[in-house]
TrEMBL record:
The keyword tRNA processing does not apply. It comes from the Bacteria. This is Fenitrothion hydrolase. The chain crosses the membrane at residues 23-43, 72-92, 104-123, 155-174, 186-206, 289-311, 323-345, 383-401, 421-439. The keyword Cytoplasm does not apply. Keywords: Membrane, Transmembrane, Transmembrane helix.
Length: 441
């Protein structure tokens, strides 16, 4: 198919901005600093409380969402989608026109973000590994929510961080990422690990260790949908974000998510391309080192900035990074929107077209094979470039609000402004660095 390129993320660059990139970066940093100043003056007590925030969802909506048939229907949708993927992966041809690559890299990875922000934790609802685990449990007469042993608290989200890194590694640096064999192997390893973990630790394993459920659930904290004492409620996204549970490994999760997206921009920059072409060291090795450096760098910068924040009498310094890590979620979502919006819309639509022919034999089983391509965003680069800046700025401003509300809860009153300065410095670095990388590609 003409224009099909899974690696072509960067449409809309510095030349397409209505203002110079330097001015855009300066304006974004200024917006963040001004927001912090206003918050310091006008927001002096915490406003979000998971125990009281939100109002009950309409009765008819709660009735639909909480009905067992609704959950079963979504499980069936998830299993059907997984079955279609397996059909194309096992019986399809090893061509870029195989919809497996779009389903894997676009629908699953990028699509989870808008789906979760709009609808809530969708992967928890449609996850085929959860459904398969429940099916196996019923066959053996066991409870899918209970495993053989309790999930260790010390593991927290560390397995999810490792799983997310494994995904971005195959997507961004593995040289054979668009060959069918490695994708099949990756998915098989993921399914096997999830089924084994679910059998041993029960459903808690999926909540804390499934990389895609953790990813989806974090993004869903920016949705208006939440739960309070098991009941469906409608909350502001900021109030919902405040309900993120601090756990071991949470900082590593957000570090991988943000760092890998930043690296995806960096690897397309002219400076990096020139460097790798001139170097005598393998480009694959350099990319591996750079990806690790970006993910580790973001993690350490966030952990250092949070740990340097002032502490109150009830909080230990080592707890601060996980307590403040939730504030980076809006930055992650904003940057993913900025970096992948055209990729998701255009290549995601192409995947829908290709999905009608999973065996690459000219079939049109879903009736989508004759749909026209969508190219509107790439045809309007100025709009696209402006959208990228807006997404990044909004993400950072929302992050500043979330961090400030948490800080005024845990910091002593006399230290509520000065104690936040290290985190403000970190966010300024993320803002300037993120925009620079976004438009350097």
């Amino acid at each position: 198919m003409e224009g099909w390129d899974l690696l072509a993320h960067g449409l809309g660059g510095p030349a397409d901005l209505p203002i110079p990139p330097e001015l855009a970066i300066a304006g974004a940093v200024a917006a963040l600093v001004v927001s912090f100043t206003i918050l310091a003056v006008a927001w002096r007590s915490p406003r979000y409380d998971a125990a009281t925030s939100g109002r009950p969802a309409p009765a008819w909506l709660a009735g639909v969402v909480d009905h067992p048939a609704y959950g079963v229907a979504l499980r069936v949708v998830g299993l059907l989608g997984f079955g279609w993927f397996c059909l194309a992966a096992v019986l399809g041809r090893d061509l870029l026109t195989n919809p497996v690559f779009g389903m894997f890299y676009v629908w699953w990875w990028v699509g989870l973000v808008p789906a979760s922000v709009l609808l809530g934790p969708v992967w928890k609802t449609i996850s085929p590994v959860r459904s398969l685990n429940a099916g196996f449990a019923r066959l053996t007469g066991s409870d899918p929510d209970r495993g053989l042993v309790d999930y260790p608290d010390r593991l927290g989200h560390w397995p999810a961080a490792v799983g997310l890194y494994a995904f971005v590694w195959i997507e961004l640096v593995y040289p054979f990422s668009t060959e069918l064999g490695p994708v099949r192997l990756w998915v098989a390893a993921y399914v096997a690990a999830m089924l084994l973990g679910g059998a041993v630790f029960g459903s808690t394993f999926y909540e804390r260790a499934d990389p895609f459920e953790v990813y989806s659930s974090l993004c869903a904290k920016l949705s208006p949908w939440g739960r309070r004492d098991g009941d469906l409620v409608v909350r502001s996204p900021l109030a919902n974000l405040d309900t993120v549970t601090p756990r071991a490994g949470l900082v590593a999760v957000v570090g991988v998510l943000f760092g890998s997206t930043a690296f995806d921009s960096f690897r397309d920059s002219l400076e990096w391309i020139r460097f790798t072409q001139a170097s005598t060291v393998s480009t694959v090795l350099l990319d591996n080192l750079a990806l690790l450096a970006f993910c580790a760098g973001v993690t350490l910068l966030l952990a250092g900035g949070a740990a340097a924040t002032g502490v109150g009498p009830d909080v230990r310094r080592r707890e601060l990074p996980n307590l403040l890590a939730h504030s980076i979620v809006p930055i992650i979502v904003g940057y993913i929107v900025a970096h992948y919006v055209n990729y998701f819309v255009e290549v995601g639509w192409d995947t829908l077209v290709l999905a009608s022919d999973p065996l690459s034999n000219g079939a049109n089983w879903l009736g989508t094979g004759d749909l026209d391509r969508i190219t509107w965003l790439s045809s309007h680069p100025t709009f696209l470039a402006s959208l990228k800046v807006v997404a990044v700025v909004i993400g950072h401003v929302v992050a500043a609000v979330a961090a400030h509300d948490r800080a005024v809860r845990i910091l002593p009153r006399h230290h509520q402004v000065t104690g936040q300065l290290p985190m403000l410095a970190v966010m300024v670095c993320f803002t300037a660095g993120g925009l620079y990388l976004l438009f350097a590609a």
